[in-house]
Each structure stands twice: as structure tokens, then as C-alpha cells.
Backbone:
């Protein structure tokens, strides 16, 4: 017996068509605008994702789902936010003022307490199997044809040895371009001693070789290969962007520490057409001294993140940028003997906002002591669908891969409909 | 619990730290965070992983719950007569309580710091209160009218501990990074910086600093102070660092000695330190496994002359005014009293070890 | 469903009728024809357009490059190309194939290919990579029959050193039911049953949940055992445990005994009074049951009734040689994605089984086919034939290992390194037989040891962890590495026996000739002679400085990047 819920080939076709139709409608609407305005407008039509990954598992009780004064509440207090009725931890005072731009999902149960498995599930929306990460999917379906940057860029100073860059069967070009902090990508400079004319000559010669090779041959592979050189050349042209010192006034706002600089780089990458930028902020795996470490880490996270959020908003990009703050899991309600909290995948939270997301909402809740989801349980499969649908990718369709029919999102789950704008 | 009425000798007869043993245990349902015994040894007050203060009458064993903090209590001190109790919490509030009445709400309350107030200390004359916290400030308050007398700024990171010099009107404070400042309360100025950076560490894997004075106390004669905390950070996110107590010389501001566990493999945090009038130092340690240790150290000796293993991690230490008993706040929710004499069952036996 | 060689999926496009005739009427005569001839006959069979679309013979130069890459994992040296072109024997291609199959480079190349296929570049966990690779290399060197090879891998428990390497397939998947079941299906049966884990496959009619769980049931009692003393991991097994599954869509529940797809289940015998040879004792002892479900796996897998097993491997070896599976992707075999040439696949599978799963035999026969030896250029005036017609040789992206060894070969790093190694050996062992350093086995091992670091760095950058596909893909990072990276740049420095140094000593026509032979494994055309001469003459910094740029452009070209 077959079950085709959410996954019927006919529906896929329709969904694809809808996707195309909405793009077309956008284009028609532009007809009345002048060319320059049109370009700007087009740029705004492009959608993108900013992921801020709080590595190690941020504590939901010290962030999005505080329960002060309860059995496992910990020492921190909850503070009111710009959305009446929503309280978050006092450790996020800047975000509290911008809560109307974000929403919270408080009812995540992924049933996983392992870093690697939790991260994989959160990235792939599937518990097992080799599927592309959200960022790789965004790269494939959201990257503009003339993009100057690879679609999926990950800024981090640690944990970059992520297997295969998350592209799976979507291919290396949709895998993470891994940036070691604000270090430019490797091999960006022309080899020492090679002058620009000679460099250009040798590249011309390479193209001549290729031209001859494709005579009476299929061009597809050569074109894909050549595209990677083209992309490399574009990146080399952006060397200054990667190497550029951040402006003093930006550093004043974002902070001079690593994470502040990463957020500034993320802003630049998003402005330059990256479809998904992931910024990792490290150090939430607080099996000991959970409270002091959350104080320190969230203290470092809150302000620069908010500066980035403000800048995206000020530049008119927030409505086309999905912003997600997530981890691989949350932390145990029970405080251990080291003042630590341990791994906890069964009742925790993320926050998200921007493109396609209903702002100022709280989805689901946990029970009074935070030990279990009390309402609207979701897992990473639901979140995966939600992210992609928020940026206009039909996650119930199949991937555009020859010879395989692979549903983009897990067909056994669906988006959190009430969260979508 | 029977009261001990031998307050006059500075060094109690029969004192033998090597025979330290538990003499009483008071249970609370949540892990304790800190404690203090009042100078007359009537009361022991403790914070726990909730919003309340637990006040035990050590004679009767009865417990009162004091309510009025918005957050966990981190630090406690008493007035010299024991009638006033001062408590500091993660919410930055200092509450003042009257222990002589049955009142369970604060007499007064000061929002002393933005963010956590990590330490509170009463001056030797009982007239002033020193507090410090996450707003990077050290503050001194007049206890008569609650007036803010001094605000000392200069610590670049959270200030963990503070204490008054017993005699000469100075204050010492230590921050997360092991920066120690000496403040002159006469001039209201910074007097000296002391390096305690051994008591901090950067966790490379998790990109965060760990450190701070978890307890800070002067020797009664004012010639030294001791600070309890950690050193040698390997993986603080799993609690893997070495507990340490460092003794500093008041005159020179130099480190005199580092005290560590006799067990080289022990990892954890030193949460309490006291000078005993007999000349040794007592440390209280939380082992990362959840057990604990009490160290007994003579400052001029390489190793602790005695270590008492504790079944539950220690999170606070005080010495009772009889100089025989120690009070320890434990992670298992118990406040335990230990006596540094031969076991009472063998109390009639002559003291063999001296 | 694969019980009959003439299954219904074959009906769609081709000539089952003709094959049926062949099978029935001239079966005996047919069987005496060499396999490579029968392959060529089957490829164009019933396709009236085939001759018009089919490419001509590739020519000796294209052949030697292709077959070196496919069987030895590297391009040939310019000398090897010259010698082969000059050779006049009519069967020189067949001789070359035989010679490559017997060379130590073949075993090394197959080690790379099967390591990638079986372990998909996952990091070594419980079995050391060296040990595993040596096992693979040895197996191919001795041409171990595939059924025996798989039996070893699926029965080894890793408890002693002699079978430790063979146990890596299971051990390094930690005996975890999901990856093991999925990979058994994909890698040995050509079926990716993953989506059938939680429900019958939503898009593939014939991948059923019971297939997945039937496979899982062979291993559901096995577990990863860690010896408390040695900390060494091996495979333990319990005497009981059943596999139950529930569809997440329908909540239907079922239970299954071990079973190979739709073949009859392998029922457990009645439980013995004492079900254990070695009883489980908490975590201290590796338990061994009297009746092992796991040991049934290899026999059920390799049993002749399980046609999927032999079809899968011939399809994969075909894809390795021809650039595309007869079923493509090679792990998506189902009614909705039928083989392009079902009768051919059937013939290959049966012939392979009849030849005792002889891998060298099959590769030799494939390399001898006209199909393999066609040009990758389609005939003038014709359009490009679809890939699944096999009318034109397909371009195959070089694996990271092939790319590394070929670049080192082209730049003469290999040759220069070998000379150094030989000199060093002679110096260190003056009494040793001078022939030692001429032994291909010694040379291969020495070169591999000296240059494996470079290979590893290519694998890091160009390799894919996880499911391998035949899809070509290239990232900007890879192009930046080739364009500006120090490694390749250093190989272009004109020193010692390096190619650029050799070219420096030559004049125009010989220079261009040597350059083409070394990098492209073919002589240049007249237009190319001229083009290169002009490039060198035009170079702003003079001819010698431009040699590095010349070689770089060739190494970075599509002609070099693909096997064609």
C-alpha cells in the first residue's frame, strides 16, 4: 500500500508552478518602475536566511522560556519585552526591546540529546539520512543566477569541520563556504610572483583548451567546472570585501569582539547576495557553571545580534530575510551539582523572525517547571518546513535532482502554519 | 543540637583538625548556595537554589524561611551582634533582615547592583556594608541610613568577592579575571592593584572565561587575605579545572601561597575559605563529581595536613565563634556542622595528637 | 519482483523478444561468444538510430589515457603513451588491459574505489584506515571473488586481528540499525530503502517498509561490543529479539523475520535449551549465540536466488567503466527507474556469477568492448545521444585520488620522487639486489608512502563524505585551490626532473609535443602546435616563465579534469 500524504508527484508539479507563478507576478509588478528602481526592487524580492547558531545548546530557561521562581528556574529573572505578555530572560535585554520583530517557538521536542545528531536534525529536518542542510537548500533555490558569492556561507571560528558542508546530493557548490571567523577564504590571492597579465593569459589559455575540448562533446561538465573558476574569480574580486576593516562606528555598535565582527561580516555577505549566512556563536554547552557562562555568552550575543537585526530592518532587508536563532537542543531544567545544565532535546525553544514569519508570536508552551512540552509539540522537521516556506520555497515539493525523487522536507511533518505570515 | 558555651578561649581546648567529624545536619529540600553563621553562633543562614533565605537557630534546630529576594541568594553576612542579616542575590538586591524578631520579610532592601550582587560584607565596626557585582562596581553603604558612601569602578569584568580589612579602613575586591583592587576608604581612592590572574582561565574550546573569588576573607590580624576559586582551566564547561585557595600578603600585595587538593586528579571549585585563630587555613571544595573536601592547611607547609572527604559538594564555609565547629553549605541541601575535635564518643579520651 | 530475468520492467523500451530468442534458441552458441562481443551486440540492439549516433573508435591515445585512469587510477606517463602509440600488435589494447589489471596500481586504485563505495569517506572509528585499506588492496590484488569478499565483510566479527579489517563495514557504522540497513540496501543491493524505514516509500512503489525491516532483522540482535580491558570494539550478538515496525502514515504494525527483499523469510530455528555459545554477562563479555541471524545475512545476500546482489555489483562496475550505471543512480533500482538495458544487465549479472564473481574478468571484458573504446566525441553532424544509450563515451570526473595522481604524473612529480626514492634506497641498502627498486610493487608502495599526503589533501578538498553520486560538481573553494594554491604552484617550479624543467630544455615543436604527451596523453594537433607556440612567444616575461602558466592552464582544463 502506498501513502502519498503531502508528497504526490502531481502536487509537486502544482507546487513548482505556484513557485514560478509567484516569481512571475513579482516581475510583472515591477514593469511600472524605472530600471534602477527595478533593480533595487528585484534585489528586495530575493530572499535569504540568516542563521545564528548558538553552539552547544543554549538554555531555554536562560533565554526564550524563562521560569523564574520555579523549581528549575535558576537565578535569572524574566523581563517584559516590546510585545505585551511576552517575557524573556533578563540576559537578553536588547532582544527584549525588539521582540516585536521576532517570534518564539517554545515547544520543541526532538527527542535527541546528542550534539551531532541534534545539530544534524536541526539542519536537515530529518533524524537520519544524508540530506542537505537548510542553508544548502537555500543556496540551491534562493541564490540569484548572477550572484557574486557562493550561496551558503558559514562564519565561525570553531566547528568548521562539518561533514561535506551540508550539501549532500545538492552538490559541492551548495555546500558551506566555511570562513574561519573574519579571515578571508583561503587561496584568494594570485600566486606570488605571477603578474596580473600573466595570470589573465594563463586563464585565457585554460578557456581555449576548454573550447577545443567541448567540440562535439557534451558541454555540461565543462560548464560546471568552468563555473567554479568563474565563482573563484568573483570571490577574488571580493577580496577587499573580505579583508576590509569594519568601520569604527559599526564596531562601536556591534562590539570589537569576535562575534560582533562576525555579525558585521554576516551583514556584508547578506547584502552581497548570499542566500544563507550562518554565524556560529560558541560555548553554550554548560554542564558546569551554566549561569555564569550563559551570562557571559548571551551577554556577548545579545547586542551585536540586535545591531544586525536593526541594520537589516533599516536597509529594508528584514522582510526578505528569515532570521533564525537556534541550537542543537536546549538544556535540562534540573540544575546539576556543578550549577550546570545538561543536554535536553525534549522541551526547548528557538526564536525566529523576518521574512515570512508572523512577528511577536509565541508558539506552544512547556509545563510549569519546564520539564515537558505542554502544548503544540513540534520537532526539527516542522521547523525545517517552516523556514523554507517562510522564504517561499515549497518544502513539500521534490528536490530538482535527476533520477531521484526526494522530498525537500520530511513528508511526515509539516510547517507550523500559524507561524507563517 | 546542644549549644557550646565555651566562647572565651581564642583557640579551643581539644582542638584537633585531623579528627574533624560531623556533629549535626540540617536539611533543606533544595541545594544550598552559600552560608554564614552569625558572630555569636546562634544562627546559620543559607541561600538555596530558590528565592528564599533559610535561617536556622543552631540551638533549637528550628528553621525560618525569609522571603523577599527576586533571585537566588549568593552571599550572606551578619552584623557583629548577630541581630541583622544581610543577603545579596543574583537580582542585584541586598536585603536586610532582623534576626531578633520573627519577621520573615526584609527590614529594608537596596537595589545595589545592575545584575547580580555577588558578595556582601559587613565592616568590622558593623557600620558599613560593602557589596560588589556584575555592574563591575564595588559599593560601600552606610548601614545607619542606607546612604551610598563609595562607588568604586575600575574592574573590567564581573566583581566576585569583596572584604574589609579588619583594622585599617581598606577594602579588597577581586573580579572574574583575577584582577584584585585595594580601595582606601579614607581617601575613597584606589590604592593598589594585585595580580590574582592565576585564579582565572580561558576555556579555549568554549571561548569563555572562568574565574573569580568564590570566597574572600581576611585573617583576623589583617596581615593576609585568602581567596578561594579555581585555576588550570581545561574544560570549565564540564567543570574541569583545579580548585585553589590563594593567600596574599597585605603589606606587599604579593601571593604568599597556593593551596590545592592532596588529590592531584580532583577537579572542581573552592567555594569557601577561613583562617583559624590557631594558624591554619580551612578550605571548602566542591568536587565536580558532586562530592567535596575540607582542607586543613598550615601556611608554612607544602601539603594540607588533613583532608576530610565530604559526601556532598561544599558551597559555603564558616567558622563558628567557638573556633571548634565549622558550618558547611552542601549541594545536597544540607547544612552540616563539623567539629574539629576528637569524636564526642571518644571526647573523654586524652588528646593524643595535639 | 526480480525473480525472473524477463521481468516486466524490461518490456518498456527494448528487445526482450530478441533476447528471449537468444536465450532459448542459441543459448549454448551464445555463451561461447566472449562477453565483450555480447555486450556490444546488446547495447545497440533494437535501436535503429544507434549506428548514426554512435561515436567512432576513440583511437589509441584516448584509449590509453582512459584505461590507465580506470584501471590504474592515474594518467600514463608520456613515455608510456609514446610506447603504446608506437606498438604495432593488433591486440595491443587487450594486452594493455591485462597488463594494467596485473599491476600494483590496479589494486591501489580499486582500494580507493571500493573504500569510497563501501565507507563513503567516513572517518575511521574502530578499525584503522591503514588496516582496512591493506585488506581491500590485498583482496583486489588476489582478485578475491566478490561473493567471498562480501561474505567476509558481513560475517567478520572483528574480535581477532585476522578478520578485524573485514569487519569495518559493520563496525564503523557502529552496528547502528539505520545506517547499516540503509547501506546494506544501497551498496550491496542497489536499493536505497531509507524512505521505507518509517513508511512504505512515498514515491517508489516497490520499496516497502518490510524490505527495510527484513534487512534490519538480520542485524537487530548484533551490537557493538567494547572489550572492557582492551577497549577494542567488536561485534556481539544476542540470541533473541524481533523486529517490529509501524508506519508513521497508517499506524499499521507488522513484524518480520530476516529477509532479503521479497525472498522467503529466513525463519529462526527453535530456540535451543542453551541459546548461547558465549553467554552475555552484562557488558563484560562479547556474547555469541548458537544461532546467529547475522551469519545468515551473508549467505542470504550472496545466494543465487538473490539476483539483486549480482545485478548491483555488475551495475556498479559498469558505471565505474562507462560513466553511468545501466541503472542510474546505482542505488535507486525500482520499477519507476528501470535499467536502460535490462537484458544486458541480466546477461552481465549471470555471466559474472557464472565466472565466480571474478572482478578482473568482468573489468577486462568491459574494457575490451567497442562500447568502452568509443570516442567521447559524437559523430560530425549527429546530435548528442542521451547518456543512457551508451553510444558515445561519457565524460567521467576524476575522483580526488585520480586527480591527485594524474597531476603528480603530469608534472613529473611522480617520476622525480621515484628517482629520489630509488637513489635513497640504493644508498641506504648498498647490498640489496639492485632490481628491488625496479620492482613495480616496491615502486608503487614507495611512491604511495611518499605522496599519500598530497592525495589526502585532494581528498579533503574534492571528496564528498556520504552518498557518492556520479553527478559532477565543482566548488569555488576547489577552483581557488587549483588557481592560487601553493601545492600545485610548487609542482610547476622548473627544477630537477619536473615537467617544466624538461620543457625548458626543449625547443618549440618538441616542447609542445612533450607537453601534450605529458599532460593530455596525446600528441598535439597542428593547430595546437601553433597555438602553444604563440602563447609562449607572446608571454610578457619570456618563454621560460610562461611554461608554468602553460602547464597550469592544461592541468586546470576540462580535458584534464575528466576521463573522456
Residues:
Amino acid at each position: 500500500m502506498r501513502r502519498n500524504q503531502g508528497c504526490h508527484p502531481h502536487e509537486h508539479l502544482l507546487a513548482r508552478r505556484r513557485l514560478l507563478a509567484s516569481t512571475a507576478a513579482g516581475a510583472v509588478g515591477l514593469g511600472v518602475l524605472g530600471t534602477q528602481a527595478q533593480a533595487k526592487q528585484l534585489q528586495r524580492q530575493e530572499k535569504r536566511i540568516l542563521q545564528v547558531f548558538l553552539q552547544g545548546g543554549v538554555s531555554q530557561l536562560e533565554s526564550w522560556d524563562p521560569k523564574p521562581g520555579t523549581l528549575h528556574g535558576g537565578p535569572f529573572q524574566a523581563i517584559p519585552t516590546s510585545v505585551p505578555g511576552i517575557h524573556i530572560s533578563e540576559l537578553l535585554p536588547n532582544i527584549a526591546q525588539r521582540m516585536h520583530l521576532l517570534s518564539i517557538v517554545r515547544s520543541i521536542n526532538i527527542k535527541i540529546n546528542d550534539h551531532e545528531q541534534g545539530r544534524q536534525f536541526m539542519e536537515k529536518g530529518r533524524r537520519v539520512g544524508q540530506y542537505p542542510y537548510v542553508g544548502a537548500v537555500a543556496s540551491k533555490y534562493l541564490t540569484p543566477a548572477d550572484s557574486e558569492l557562493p550561496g551558503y556561507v558559514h562564519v565561525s571560528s570553531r566547528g568548521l569541520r562539518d561533514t561535506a558542508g551540508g550539501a549532500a546530493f545538492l552538490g559541492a557548490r551548495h555546500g558551506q563556504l566555511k570562513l574561519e571567523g573574519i579571515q578571508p577564504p583561503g587561496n584568494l590571492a594570485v600566486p606570488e610572483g605571477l603578474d596580473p597579465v600573466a595570470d589573465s593569459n594563463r586563464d585565457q589559455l585554460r578557456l581555449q583548451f576548454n573550447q577545443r575540448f567541448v567540440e562535439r562533446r557534451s558541454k555540461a561538465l565543462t560548464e560546471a567546472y568552468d563555473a567554479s573558476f568563474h565563482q573563484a574569480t568573483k570571490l577574488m574580486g571580493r577580496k577587499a570585501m573580505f579583508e576590509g576593516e569594519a568601520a569604527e562606528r559599526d564596531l562601536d555598535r556591534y562590539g570589537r569582539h569576535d562575534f560582533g565582527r562576525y555579525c558585521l561580516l554576516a551583514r556584508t555577505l547578506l547584502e552581497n547576495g548570499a542566500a544563507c549566512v550562518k554565524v556560529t556563536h560558541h560555548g553554550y554547552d554548560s554542564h558546569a557553571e551554566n549561569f555564569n557562562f550563559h551570562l557571559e555568552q548571551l551577554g556577548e550575543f545579545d547586542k551585536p545580534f540586535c545591531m544586525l537585526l536593526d541594520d537589516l530592518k533599516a536597509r529594508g532587508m528584514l522582510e526578505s530575510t528569515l532570521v533564525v536563532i537556534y541550537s542543537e537542543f536546549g538544556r535540562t531544567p534540573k540544575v546539576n551539582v556543578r550549577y550546570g545544565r545538561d543536554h535536553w532535546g525534549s522541551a526547548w525553544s528557538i526564536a525566529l523572525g523576518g521574512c515570512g514569519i508572523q512577528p511577536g508570536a509565541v508558539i506552544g508552551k512547556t509545563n510549569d517547571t519546564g520539564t515537558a512540552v505542554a502544548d503544540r509539540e513540534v520537532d526539527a522537521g516542522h521547523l525545517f518546513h517552516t523556514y523554507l516556506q517562510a522564504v517561499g520555497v515549497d518544502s513539500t515539493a521534490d528536490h530538482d535532482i535527476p533520477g531521484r525523487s526526494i522530498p525537500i522536507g520530511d513528508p511526515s511533518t509539516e510547517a507550523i502554519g500559524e507561524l507563517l505570515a | 543540637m546542644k549549644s557550646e558555651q565555651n566562647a572565651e578561649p581564642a583557640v579551643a581546648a581539644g582542638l584537633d583538625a585531623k579528627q574533624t567529624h560531623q556533629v549535626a545536619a540540617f536539611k533543606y529540600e533544595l541545594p544550598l548556595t552559600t552560608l554564614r553563621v552569625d558572630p555569636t553562633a546562634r544562627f546559620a543562614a543559607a541561600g538555596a537554589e530558590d528565592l528564599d533565605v533559610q535561617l536556622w537557630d543552631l540551638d533549637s534546630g528550628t528553621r525560618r524561611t525569609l522571603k523577599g529576594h527576586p533571585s537566588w541568594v549568593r552571599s550572606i553576612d551578619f552584623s557583629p551582634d548577630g541581630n541583622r542579616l544581610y543577603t545579596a542575590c543574583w537580582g542585584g538586591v541586598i536585603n536586610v533582615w532582623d534576626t531578633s524578631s520573627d519577621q520573615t520579610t526584609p527590614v529594608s532592601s537596596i537595589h545595589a547592583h545592575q545584575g547580580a550582587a555577588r558578595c556582601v560584607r559587613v565592616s568590622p565596626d558593623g557600620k558599613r556594608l560593602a557589596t560588589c557585582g556584575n555592574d563591575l562596581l564595588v559599593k560601600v553603604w552606610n548601614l545607619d541610613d542606607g546612604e551610598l558612601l563609595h562607588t568604586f569602578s575600575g574592574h573590567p569584568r564581573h566583581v566576585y568577592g569583596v572584604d574589609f580589612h579588619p583594622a585599617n579602613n581598606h577594602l579588597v575586591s577581586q573580579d572574574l579575571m583575577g584582577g584584585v583592587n585595594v580601595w582606601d576608604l579614607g581617601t575613597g581612592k584606589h590604592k593598589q592593584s594585585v595580580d590574582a590572574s592565576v585564579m582565572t582561565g580561558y576555556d579555549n574550546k568554549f571561548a569563555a572565561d572562568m574565574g573569580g573569588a568564590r570566597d574572600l576573607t581576611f585573617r583576623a590580624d589583617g596581615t593576609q587575605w585568602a581567596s578561594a576559586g579555581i585555576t588550570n582551566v581545561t574544560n570549565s564547561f564540564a567543570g574541569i579545572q583545579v580548585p585553589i585557595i590563594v593567600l596574599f600578603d597585605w603589606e606587599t600585595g604579593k601571593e604568599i601561597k597556593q593551596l590545592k587538593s592532596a588529590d592531584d586528579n580532583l577537579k572542581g571549585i573552592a567555594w569557601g575559605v577561613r583562617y583559624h585563630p590557631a594558624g591554619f587555613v580551612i578550605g571548602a571544595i566542591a568536587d565536580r563529581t558532586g562530592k567535596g573536601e575540607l582542607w586543613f592547611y598550615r601556611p608554612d607547609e607544602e601539603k594540607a595536613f588533613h583532608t576530610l572527604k565530604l559526601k556532598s559538594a561544599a558551597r559555603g564555609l564558616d567558622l563558628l565563634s567557638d573556633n571548634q565547629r565549622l558550618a558547611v553549605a552542601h549541594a545536597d541541601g544540607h547544612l552540616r556542622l563539623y567539629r574539629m575535635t576528637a569524636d564526642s564518643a571518644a571526647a573523654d579520651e586524652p588528646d593524643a595528637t595535639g | 519482483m526480480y525473480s525472473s530475468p524477463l521481468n516486466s520492467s524490461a518490456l518498456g523500451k527494448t528487445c526482450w523478444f530478441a533476447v528471449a530468442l537468444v536465450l532459448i534458441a542459441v543459448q549454448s552458441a551464445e555463451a561461447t561468444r566472449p562477453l565483450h562481443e555480447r555486450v556490444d551486440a546488446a547495447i545497440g540492439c533494437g535501436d535503429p538510430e544507434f549506428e548514426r549516433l554512435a561515436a567512432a573508435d576513440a583511437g589509441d591515445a584516448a584509449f590509453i589515457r582512459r584505461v590507465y585512469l580506470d584501471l590504474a587510477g592515474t594518467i600514463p606517463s608520456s613515455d608510456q603513451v609514446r610506447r603504446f602509440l608506437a606498438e604495432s600488435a593488433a591486440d595491443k589494447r587487450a594486452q594493455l588491459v591485462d597488463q594494467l589489471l596485473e599491476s600494483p596500481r590496479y589494486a591501489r586504485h580499486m582500494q580507493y574505489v571500493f573504500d569510497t563505495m563501501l565507507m563513503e569517506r567516513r572517518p575511521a572509528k574502530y578499525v584503522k584506515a591503514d588496516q582496512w585499506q591493506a585488506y581491500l588492496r590485498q583482496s583486489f590484488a588476489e582478485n578475491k571473488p566478490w561473493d567471498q569478499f562480501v561474505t567476509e565483510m558481513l560475517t567478520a566479527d572483528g574480535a581477532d586481528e585476522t578478520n578485524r579489517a573485514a569487519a569495518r563495514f559493520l563496525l564503523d557504522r557502529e552496528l547502528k540499525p539505520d545506517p547499516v540497513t540503509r547501506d546494506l540496501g544501497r551498496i550491496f543491493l542497489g536499493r536505497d530503502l531509507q524512505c521505507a524505514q518509517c513508511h512504505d516509500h512515498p514515491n517508489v512503489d516497490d520499496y516497502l517498509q518490510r524490505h527495510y525491516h527484513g534487512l534490519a532483522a538480520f542485524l537487530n540482535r548484533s551490537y557493538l561490543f567494547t572489550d572492557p580491558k582492551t577497549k577494542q570494539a567488536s561485534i556481539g550478538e544476542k540470541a533473541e529479539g524481533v523486529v517490529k515496525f509501524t508506519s508513521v502514515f497508517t499506524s499499521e504494525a507488522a513484524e518480520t523475520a530476516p529477509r532479503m527483499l521479497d525472498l522467503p523469510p529466513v525463519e529462526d530455528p527453535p530456540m535451543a535449551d542453551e541459546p548461547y555459545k558465549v553467554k552475555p554477562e552484562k557488558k563484560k563479555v562479547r556474547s555469541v549465540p548458537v544461532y546467529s541471524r547475522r551469519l545468515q545475512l551473508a549467505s542470504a545476500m550472496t545466494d543465487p536466488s538473490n539476483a539483486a546482489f549480482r545485478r548491483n555489483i555488475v551495475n556498479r562496475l559498469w558505471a565505474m567503466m562507462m560513466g553511468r550505471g545501466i541503472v542510474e543512480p546505482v542505488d535507486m533500482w525500482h520499477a519507476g527507474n528501470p535499467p536502460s538495458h535490462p537484458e544486458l544487465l541480466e546477461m552481465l549479472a549471470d555471466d559474472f556469477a557464472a565466472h565466480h564473481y571474478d572482478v578482473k574478468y568482468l573489468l577486462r571484458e568491459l574494457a575490451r568492448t567497442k562500447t568502452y573504446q568509443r570516442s567521447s566525441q559524437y559523430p560530425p553532424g549527429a546530435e548528442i545521444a542521451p547518456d543512457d544509450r551508451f553510444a558515445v563515451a561519457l565524460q567521467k570526473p576524476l575522483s580526488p585520488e585520480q586527480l591527485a595522481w594524474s597531476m603528480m604524473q603530469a608534472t613529473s612529480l611522480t617520476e622525480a620522487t621515484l628517482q629520489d626514492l630509488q637513489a635513497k634506497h640504493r644508498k641506504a641498502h648498498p647490498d640489496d639486489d639492485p632490481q628491488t627498486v625496479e620492482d613495480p610493487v616496491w615502486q608503487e608502495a614507495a611512491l604511495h608512502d611518499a605522496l599519500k599526503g598530497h592525495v589526502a589533501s585532494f581528498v579533503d578538498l574534492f571528496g564528498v563524505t556520504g552518498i557518492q553520486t556520479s553527478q559532477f560538481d565543482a566548488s569555488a573553494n576547489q577552483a581557488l585551490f587549483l588557481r592560487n594554491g601553493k601545492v600545485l604552484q610548487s609542482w610547476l617550479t622548473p627544477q630537477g626532473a619536473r615537467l617544466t624543467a624538461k620543457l625548458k630544455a626543449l625547443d618549440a615543436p618538441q616542447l609542445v609535443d612533450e607537453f601534450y604527451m605529458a599532460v593530455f596523453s596525446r600528441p598535439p594537433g597542428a593547430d595546437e602546435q601553433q597555438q602553444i607556440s604563440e602563447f609562449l612567444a607572446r608571454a610578457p616575461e619570456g618563454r621560460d616563465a610562461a611554461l608554468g602558466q602553460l602547464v597550469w592552464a592544461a592541468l586546470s582544463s576540462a580535458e584534464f579534469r575528466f576521463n573522456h
The two ends of chain B are 26 Å apart (CA to CA).
